[in-house]
Structures are given as structure tokens and as C-alpha cells.
Amino acid sequence: MATLNLGRIKPVFRGAYSGSTAYVVDDIVTHGNESFICIQAHGAGTQATSVTAYWSKLAAKGTDGTDVGTTITAQGDILYRDGSGLQKLAKPASDKVLQNTSGGVLSWIDAPSGVVKKNHHFTMNTRTAGSSSAGDQFTITSAFTPLLPTAGNNDLYVQCSVPTSTDGNDFTGYGLRFSKSGGSDYDFFGRGVQYSDIQSSAHQGVCSQYFNIPAGTIAAGTYTIKLRTESTSSHHQYYNPNSTDEARLATQTQTELMIQEWKN
Fold first, then answer.
1. Domain count, the chain
2. 215-228 average pLDDT score
3. In a designed cystine with 211, which of 35, 180, 191, 217 is the match (CB 3.0 to 4.6 A)?
4. Are residues 155 and 210 in the same domain?
């Protein structure tokens, strides 16, 4: 019976091209991130994939892209495209804002005037007994770290609300004390201070302030911020009173302190 040679039924993948290997028709290899199929058999080391009489390209690679992992290398780096390709904008060495020019080039610049540079928000809801001494103090936070003065010319805009209860008539002036460990105390009275007239026993009042601390007033560091009171009569019984102190309070109340740092 006659033998019919059908040749290869399907192509055979031979892996990466090697000059020391012989290839036959329909062998498929990879080389230079592309793939080729053999169209004419040849011995080892005789025909490279670039010789079109022996190899036909199956798949060509595209244009080499940018390796993002080698372009942005540090925490805070930003990847963006300029006129020629992907570029890295390195994180700034200090507090900055991002600027995009008309040409699409990104850069870090100092914050312009009137921009909020940082927001701080602190809450405190622990029921705390006051004292009857002059200059009574109630700690709101011990973790305030402003950007200034290293940022140069920031203002602090401070809003503070502290629920209180008293046991009698109380004409009280409020203010905030910024205390730095190993440093000076800074008292901010007068601007934004409100006076509370609580005329009957076990009533609730609220110290509410909104004022500005000019740039350069306090030194760099971490501060404890306290509410200070000066009273003509009795002092507050409790800060953040609850329903035990005042039956008309459904739940325990909470102190709120919000600070914005503005570029002036």
C-alpha cells in the first residue's frame, strides 16, 4: 500500500530561537519579544529569524512603553505625561500645592494667598469636673502640630465649642491656651471671646469662639490646647455634662475644636 506523507498536522512551538538548533517548516519560535514561524527547513546556526527566506514574522511587538515602576520610585511621587512621554514629579520637600501651567507642565509651588493649607479637627466627650479656682483649665487636645512657622506666614482660624454646666450665676470669660512642652504658654483671649450668663442652678451653657491667630505668634512644635475660664462668681461644675448634670440633656455632649491654617 502506498504511503501518503501529510507533513505536520499543526505548528510546533519550539520556545526561544537558538542558533544551535535545527528547525523545520512550521516550527514557531520567539525572538526579541516577537514570534516567527519557519517556512524553510535549515540546520543549526545557518539562518537567523531576520532571514525572510526561512522565517516569517507571526507577531510584531509594539512601541516600547515606559516602565512605571522605574519612573516613580518613592512614596509621594506623581506620574504624568508631558510632550514626550511619562514623567515623574517628585514629592516636594516641604508643604506645597500643585500647579499646572498652560503647557501642561506640573510643578510644586508655595501656596498662594487665601488657600487653606491644613485642617485640624479634635473632639473630646469625656465628662470632666471643673475647679473653683481662677484660671480654670479644661484640656481639649494634646496633639496639635501646626505647619507654621516653618511654612512662613500662615494664620490659624480657630473655632471652639465646649458644653458646660454650672451651679449658679456665672459671668465667665473664655479663651484658649496653647501649651508647648518645654516651651511657652500662649493665651488667646479677647478676640472672639464670649461671655456666658447662666442664672440658675444646673443649667447648660456653651463656650463658642471663632478667632484668628496671626502668623508667627506661636513656635513650631506639638501643643496641648486647653479652654481657660475667668469668672466673677462660681466656676463651671462640669465640661461636657451629661443627663446626670442636666436632666434635659438626652445624651452626653461633646467638645469640638476646629483649626484651619491659611496662607495669608
1. 3
2. 83
3. 191
4. yes
Q: What is the largest CA-CA distance in the chain?
A: 125
Q: What is the pLDDT of residues 145-187, one digit of tens each?
A: 887 655 456 788 888 888 877 655 555 667 788 898 877 888 8
What would the grid cell of residue 65 be? 512603553
pTM: 0.54
Q: Residue 139 to residues 96, 227, 245: CA-CA distances in angstroms?
A: 32, 6, 20
Distance CA 11, CA 26 (A): 5
The grid cell for 243 is: 443627663
Which residues are within 8 A (CB) of 29 and not within 5 positions of it... i.e. 6 or more apart?
13, 14, 15, 16, 17, 23, 35, 36, 38, 49
* 217, 251: one domain: yes
Can you give the residue range of the structural domain that contains 21? 12-59
Residue 97 and residue 81: Cα distance in Å, rounded? 19
